[in-house]
Specification:
It is globular and about 65 Å long. Helix 17 packs across helix 19 and helix 18 packs parallel to helix 20. The protein is mainly alpha-helical. The chain has two domains: 247 residues; 168 residues, no CATH class. It is built from 27 helices and four strands.
């Protein structure tokens, strides 16, 4: 779906735009919540389909995971890289006795033969026109191979853009300065983990219709946040990771890294908190090695490089470098990431007395204030925030702060460009944009809390706003339309009821186990 196209958040558009069972969208169409469930989606489906009905991936049905004849490492001649025919059984990639570059090369060949990647992935709506999710994955595995070999000439050639203005242009030495410290010390299973994350981090963009036809287990797959869905697919379809020969711990690391792969970007945009890396930090401390955290940062940077290629610019690199330094310092100090992030946010707020006074007056914590500024614009004056807060019901400020200031918080996709910076680019008034951001996060958080009895409690939850982002970035008229609807919301509970109710047009909300999706239903022209 092209960016900026008006979209319908109907059952049809959900099925077309988000690969998810429409039954999961019922909270959009019904004001009252669904009946409580004893377990994730499988419980409701068990009566319709027994375990014996699931397609055997080794049988006659097309396999979503592999094709017969896929080569193992022992079969590959790296001069020719020709696969050798094998019996119809899941292949195991022998990656134990090769150098990292060869291992990543083998994984790069492997991913090109996975139907779930080559056939099943939906096109990413934010990618450059004509570029598909699978192509980004192929590019990323190629970049990983160069990274593993320390071949920065080849890696830099994939992103070099001399036509960029000098302040935006990234040099090869700047790339090396960030990536090489992350490469040092990686060994053995680390490289297999990185390659597996490269293969499957975007698996959550899988089309549910395609996956259902191939007998994949879609338990916990909701179409709200693709990174959460990637983790769910890997958990419930263990055959995906079987060829990598990973340990139990290694497979768990892959799943967690896939769920967290968007965190560096979220952190930079105000859409997340570095505390989400807490489980990785704890594991790394227990192992006495920073390698797991290195993998997270290396993949985060390679992921955005493979998505941007010639559009990869210095501000992006600098943001990743800053996060990398933050994590390295925390690991060396033994300071958990959440408390360290709060200490740095507090110190930053103390250095800006105008913002400190506004935050203190309206009960906004240091982390929430830091994130709100990133979500809108760091260039806005404190007065714009004061004006915005003065015009808001205190309940909006309370729920925004409650959802944003703590370590248990929301992690956004397209939230900044939908309700913050995207509106500012469309020349909307700054104080109205700030109010819109606070209102939408507060409504989502309140709705999330109301739906916990039905979807379960999750401390770190997803918040997605793809459809509103498309409307806002279509131009000033679209931004004005979205902003006007948010402006009409004066009361928190009424806003939640309106956004989660059935019928009508405009902004809508639905909830799932992973979090909340804010959608947009376009107006339908009356029949002539």
């Amino acid at each position: 779906m092209p960016v900026g196209q008006s979209v319908s958040f109907s059952a049809l558009s959900v099925r077309e735009c988000y690969p998810v069972d429409v039954r999961l969208c019922r909270s959009i169409f019904f004001a009252s919540p669904p009946a409580a469930r004893s377990g994730p989606r499988a419980a409701a489906e068990a009566s319709d389909k027994g375990e014996g009905d699931r397609v055997d991936l080794g049988g006659s049905a097309p396999s979503p995971v592999w094709r017969a004849g896929l080569a193992t490492l022992a079969d590959l001649d790296f001069d020719r890289a020709q696969p050798v025919s094998k019996p119809s059984e899941p292949p195991v990639l022998d990656l134990s006795s090769v150098d990292p570059g060869a291992a990543l090369h083998t994984i790069g060949l492997h991913v090109r033969q996975l139907p779930c990647i080559t056939e099943g992935l939906a096109d990413a709506p934010t990618m450059t026109s004509g570029t598909e999710t699978r192509d980004k994955i192929f590019t990323q595995l190629q970049m990983m191979e160069h990274f593993a070999r320390g071949d920065y000439d080849s890696l830099y050639a994939m992103i070099e853009n001399p036509s960029l203005p000098e302040p935006l242009r990234v040099s090869k030495q700047e790339i090396i300065a960030v990536l090489e410290p992350l490469r040092q010390g990686l060994a053995g299973e680390d490289w297999k983990i990185l390659g597996a994350v490269g293969c499957f981090h975007d698996l959550g963009k899988l089309r549910s219709e395609w996956a259902t036809e191939r007998g994949m287990d879609l338990t916990d797959f909701e179409g709200i946040a693709h990174d959460f869905d990637s983790e769910a697919l890997l958990k419930h379809n263990p055959e995906l990771l079987a060829p990598f020969g990973l340990s139990v711990e290694g497979r768990e690391k892959v799943r967690v890294l896939c769920r967290l792969h968007s965190l560096p970007g979220m952190h930079c945009l105000g859409e997340g908190n570095a505390a989400a890396y807490g489980p990785l930090f704890t594991s790394a401390r227990q192992e006495g090695s920073e390698n797991l955290l290195k993998l997270a940062r290396a993949h985060g940077l390679l992921d955005v490089m493979s998505a941007k290629t010639r559009g990869f610019v210095k501000p992006i690199l600098n943001a990743h470098a800053g996060l990398s330094r933050f994590i390295t310092e925390a690991f060396a100090q033994g300071t958990p990431l959440g408390p360290k992030y709060r200490m740095e946010s507090s110190a930053e707020l103390m250095r800006a007395p105008d913002f400190r006074d506004v935050a203190n007056e309206y009960g906004i914590g240091p982390v929430a204030m830091k994130r709100l500024r990133a979500l809108t614009s760091a260039s806005l004056e404190a007065g714009a925030f004061r004006t915005a807060f003065e015009g808001l019901d205190p309940q909006f400020l309370y729920w925004f702060n409650r959802a944003t200031d703590d370590e248990d918080t929301w992690y956004g996709t397209f939230v900044q460009s939908a309700f913050g910076s995207g509106m500012l680019k469309a020349k909307m008034p700054p104080h109205e944009v700030i109010q819109a951001m606070v209102k939408m996060v507060a409504c989502a958080a309140r709705y999330r809390a109301q739906m916990e009895p039905y979807h379960g409690s999750r401390g770190k939850w997803a918040l997605s706003a793809l459809e509103p982002q498309q409307v806002v970035t279509s131009g000033p008229a679209g931004a004005r339309k979205v902003l006007d609807q948010i402006g009409r919301i004066r009361d928190l509970d009424d806003g939640v009821k309106e956004l989660s109710g059935s019928g009508g047009s405009g902004l809508m909300m639905r909830s799932g186990n992973s979090g909340v999706e804010i959608g947009y239903m376009a107006e339908v022209d009356p029949a002539p």
